[in-house]
Design brief:
This protein is α+β, with helices and mostly antiparallel strands. The chain has seven helices and three strands, in the order H-H-E-E-H-H-H-H-E-H.
């Protein structure tokens, strides 16, 4: 094994070794509602978060600012960029009602005031009411690995690592 490969493997292993502890902290976090976030999370706190709907984990994300990001997910004025989880839920809800959205971009759906917008507005309200757990993680590499680890461990239905 080349020296560069050994260094990369050691670096990865160091990050990976932290994941079970961070995950246990995430699971042990007392859930908060959106209105409680400002009291419990200082500004500019980086980390991983998990949304829970009916006490079931449904989505995991990561951010440089937990308080800001968690607020964006359910804010009435948030767009498809900042309320990505609600957007995914809205897409699924619209398709479940028989609307064919295959091949439509996020921008196209966001411009669809007649069919898609009511679903998106509704799902932002649902997300805003969900409980959230989080763990503070400053390191970006550890965050990225923990996001995948937590999504897999929690078997969240709205996390997909497929790219377009």
């Amino acid at each position: 094994m080349r020296n560069q490969d050994r260094k990369a493997r050691k670096n990865f292993d160091n990050h990976a070794a932290k994941l079970p502890t961070y995950f246990a902290t995430l699971e042990a976090c007392v859930p908060a509602t959106r209105s409680e976030l400002a009291k419990r999370i200082p500004k500019d706190t980086a980390g991983i978060y998990a949304f829970y709907h009916n006490d079931q984990p449904v989505y995991v994300g990561r951010t440089r600012d937990l308080r800001r990001r968690l607020g964006e997910h359910g804010r009435v004025g948030s767009t498809h960029y900042s309320a990505s989880f609600a957007f995914l839920r809205a897409r699924r809800a619209a398709e479940a009602k028989g609307h064919v959205l295959t091949g439509k971009s996020r921008a196209e759906l966001s411009d669809d005031k007649e069919i898609f917008k009511p679903f998106f507005v509704s799902e932002k309200a649902v997300v805003a009411s969900m409980a959230v757990r989080w763990v503070v993680v400053d390191d970006a590499v550890t965050q990225a690995l923990l996001e995948v680890y937590a999504a897999l461990a929690l078997e969240t239905e709205f996390n997909s690592f497929v790219t377009s």
